[in-house]
Amino acid sequence: TRCPRQAWPHVTVRICVPRRCSLGHIADLHSSDTTSLPGFENLTMGYNKYLRPYFGGEPVQIAMSLDIASISSISESDMDYTATIYLRQRWTDPRLVFHGNKSFTLDARLVELLWVPDTYIVESKRSFLHDVTVGNRLIRLFSNGTILYALRITTTVACNMDLSKYPMDTQTCRLQLESWGYDENDVIFTWLRGNDSVHGIEKLRLSQYTVERYYTLVSKSQQETGSYPRLILQFELRRNVLYFILETYVPSTLLVMLSWVSFWITLDSVPARTCIGVTTVLSMTTLMIGSRSSLSKTNCFIKAIDVYLGICFSFIFGALVEYAVAHYSSSQKCAAKAPQEGPANELTKEMEEVNITNILNSSITSYKRKISFTSIEISSDNVNCSGLTMKTHEKIKCVLRNKMHRIIGYFTIQNPSNVDHYSKLLFPLFFMLVNVFYWAYYLYF
């Protein structure tokens, strides 16, 4: 500041008038302990931070590059991911050209005095700039007017996921950068070096995913207010299925195999076979509930793991139903033999109490009853429907009754022990076939 001196009688007053200071405008100071920065005296003469470079002329070209520091979490329930990135933007402002071939790093707080692009992250849910110990921003000024503006940002970005093949899925997520207010007539976004503009993503180590590939795109966003430039970083994440194989697939498969143990236990061991069937069903139910609890907000998806658990549950429940059918058939067969064995037991008791004449009489009587009972069964099962005295509706009922007896006879299990014998072969065979189709479909289609 230059302070003119005015004198009054008996009083000498020095009035100091402050002079307007701006970035790089170093006034001439007469004090011997103040030095000026060469080349910056007239740097911002007439500079207006509210107007973009080349205002009213050609658009400003802004080149960007990214460093992906980390991807801390990928949430299937919220369908988003959280990443920490270093965003670097470069553009040229001819108003800031100065002599020399040096570059100067300025205090980050001086960014308030410069024009900067209004870049924002599309589909961002939450974002913040790091400010420990100071705001993590960088301003570097080059002699040709190029400005490097770097930021450290942590953002949570939406990522629409298709979980129909979970946990054998591959998800495609995007990080999109777009200008908020300046359309393509004002700014043009470009990647600084194409795919090489993105660093660090190939070195990431995620808990459930592996980065398959990534690539950069240049696009435009057509809005009602205009067409805005957009840069896209698209990367594919493949889920590591080994954890789920050990956590879910192997236990569910072992439970299915455990249910087959009941086929080697006799039908008379009701407690043993019932215990195995009920235990495996309850264990499978618990496993299904546990697998869905981690994705409670995405239960609307029918996922690949749900299909496999449903298959396993069906086989386990089928093994329990198989024992119920075999045991019921065995009990029905024993009940059919009981009337035939009953008279024989009575004859044995009578032989101890009556004489030979009574034995013969009782034998003849029981034999006649058997013949009459058999004839009644035969006549009831195969009724002759060709009688001339029968009416038409009675003949129809007779024919339908005979057909029903034949159909029931086809499904009647003659030997219940064969049910377990066939189940020992059919259950493992069908389970292996279903597994082949399951893994082939979800891994290759």
Indicate the topology.
Blueprint: E1 5-8, E2 11-14, E3 60-75, E4 80-92, E5 103-106, E6 119-121, E7 124-129, E8 137-142, E9 146-158, E10 170-179, E11 187-191, E12 198-199, E13 209-223, E14 226-239, H1 242-259, H2 270-293, H3 304-351, H4 356-381, H5 392-410, H6 417-444
Parallel strand pairs: 3-11, 3-12
Antiparallel strand pairs: 1-2, 3-4, 4-9, 5-8, 6-10, 7-9, 8-9, 10-14, 13-14
CATH topology of the domain at 44-239: Acetylcholine Binding Protein, Chain: A
Shape: elongated
Radius of gyration: 44 Å
Q: Output the number of helix runs.
A: 6
Tell me the distance between the termini. Answer: 77 Å
Indicate the low-confidence ranges by residue numbers. 1-41, 347-357, 370-381
Considering DSSP H and I runs of 4 or more, what fraction of the residues is helical? 25-40%
Based on secondary structure, the structural category is alpha+beta
CATH architecture of the domain at 44-239: Distorted Sandwich
How many beta-strand segments? Answer: 14
Identify the CATH homologous superfamily of the domain at 44-239: Neurotransmitter-gated ion-channel ligand-binding domain
Largest sheet: 8 strands, mixed
Q: CATH class of the domain at 44-239, please?
A: Mainly Beta
Strand content range: 25-35%
Provide mean pLDDT, rounded. 80
List the helices and strands in order.
EEEEEEEEEEEEEEHHHHHH
